[in-house]
Amino acid sequence: MSVSRMDRRQRSELARVLVVDDEADIRELLDLTLVRMGLSVDCAATVAEAKKFLERGPYSLCLTDMRLPDGEGLEIVREIGAHYGETPVAVITAFGSADNAVAALKAGAFDYLAKPLALDQLRALIKSALNLPHGGEAANGKTVAATGGQLIGASPAIFYVREMIVKLARSQAPVYISGESGSGKELAARLIHSQSTRNAAPFVPVNCGAIPENLLESEFFGYRKGAFPGADGDRDGFFQAANGGTLFLDEVADLPLAMQVNLLRPIQEKRVRKVGAANEEPVDVRLVSATHRKLKDCVDAATFRLDLYYRLNVIELKMPPLRERQEDIPLLVEAALARMCGANPPELTDEAMRALCAYSYPGNVRELENILERATALCTSGKVVLDDLQLAAESAVEGGVGRDGETLDDHMNRIEKQVIVEALAKTGFNRTAAARLLGVTFRSLRYRIERLGIEE
Predict the structure, then answer these.
(1) Which of 385, 346, 206 has the alpha carbon at shortest distance from 285?
(2) For residue range 163-172, what is the model confidence (pLDDT) as tens digits?
(3) Are residues 147 and 187 in contact, defined by beta-carbon separation less than 8 angstroms?
(4) Is the distance from CB of 18 to CB of 47 less than 8 angstroms?
(5) Dihedral sign, CA of 399, 402, 408, 412?
(6) Which residues pair with 347 in a beta bridge?
(7) What is the pLDDT of residue 6?
(8) Which residue, among 50, 137, 14, 135, has the nearest Cα to 85 in the 3D structure?
(9) How confident is the model over 183-205, as pLDDT tens digits?
(10) What domains appear along the chain, each with residue ranges and CATH number?
(11) Which residues pair with 101 in a beta bridge?
């Protein structure tokens, strides 16, 4: 349906797009596509022309090729980042140029497209870019303070994390969240998603260590009917389930090398092929990954591919351990007790609160919540006292003294076995649930059970 001249003028006042490409046919394709979407378009063939256009007035989006006659597209990315921070910029890269795409995202590009251009991916990128929140507002209209309040605390460390989440929500670049177990990596990933333009689409979390190796490909990419015995119908995988939204790869370091190879093309080309399918299909997914390990150490140990590391670790968000933000503990305690006990939570004695603030928390926020949950079950008269916290037992598990004649390895194995047996008992020997309770991957727990000779 045609757009009236008045309507087009009104819309173009709100959404002007700058296209920078030295190939006339690419400029024409982009111009035609954007105009049909009701947008106003200016086209430039060089870096110099693009800078002149930028000086004339603001743009809602810039699309630039990486290779230009008088420079690189990265120069435009940096120029916009330095002087026109509200303008998202996407780069157009040659087919298979993963290094260029990663360099552009690290320089501040909103997203990238690979040649030959796929119009469905182009339209999705444009719609996502034009819906970007501005200033301090999240995509759902809430203020950053209101949305970020789920990350409880007032310490400088947690304030920095909140600021980073706001910035990351405005980009489509892959994010790698590092941090110890229990430090809030999945919460940070969910906040990045909820404050982004993708918040109306699914957030799909995947525990990479909990999927049997022979099912990884079909779980991630889906399969066609008859692809293998038991494939009675077509099924979508994680990429299709997260289409339009965010795919969160938790404990990504646990992926076997063969599966790491299979992830490279979907990340770079934004297309996946179901098991048993002849053709690829486009997917619009933002990737956020996390692990409690140091991913660079895994690369050095040859257990994680360097090329996948660079594709996932475009921007790193570091989650601080609780021991580095102990001033947040009283706020975390208050919030946790309110969530566990409702309107009438028990009070903590001063001695109990001091003990909580002095503890080192090797399990971070998750361990603090477990301590409080146990304390609320043990306390009487509506008060939590020091003995209810059982911090001495926690400290013994963390680093107790062995029995007479017991070697250090024997002592550590005994403590580890005791903790795993207790977790298995609590979960009815459900290994997946026990792994979640212990803050380790399913594969890691299975290995420990076999090594320690634990039987049901």
Answers:
(1) 206
(2) 999 889 988 8
(3) no
(4) no
(5) negative
(6) 383
(7) 39
(8) 135
(9) 999 999 999 999 998 999 999 99
(10) 5-130 (3.40.50.2300), 144-318 (3.40.50.300), 322-398 (1.10.8.60), 403-452 (1.10.10.60)
(11) none
User: Residues 385-433: pLDDT tens digits?
Assistant: 998 898 865 665 555 444 445 555 666 677 778 888 888 878 878 888 8
What's the pLDDT at 127?
Answer: 85
Asked whether residue 146 carries a pLDDT value surpassing 60, the answer given is: no
**Bond before 266 cis per omega within 30 degrees:** no
Angle at 86 between CA 85 and CA 92, to 5 degrees: 80
Tell me, what's the pLDDT at 438? 81
pLDDT in tens, 12-66: 455 899 999 999 999 999 999 999 888 999 999 999 999 999 999 889 999 999 9
Q: Rounded to whole angstroms, how far apart are CA atoms 148 and 159?
A: 9
Mean pLDDT of the chain: 85
Give the whole-angstrom CA distance, residue 174 versus residue 184: 18
Is the pLDDT score of 138 beyond 60?
no
> Residue 121: is its pLDDT beyond 90?
no
Residue 5 reports pLDDT greater than 80: no
- Residue 448 — left, alpha, or beta (φ > 0 → left; ψ -120 to 50 → alpha)? alpha
Selected residue with higher pLDDT from 444 and 244: 244
Distances 397 to 236, 361, 391, 415, 418 between C-alpha atoms, Å: 43, 12, 10, 6, 9
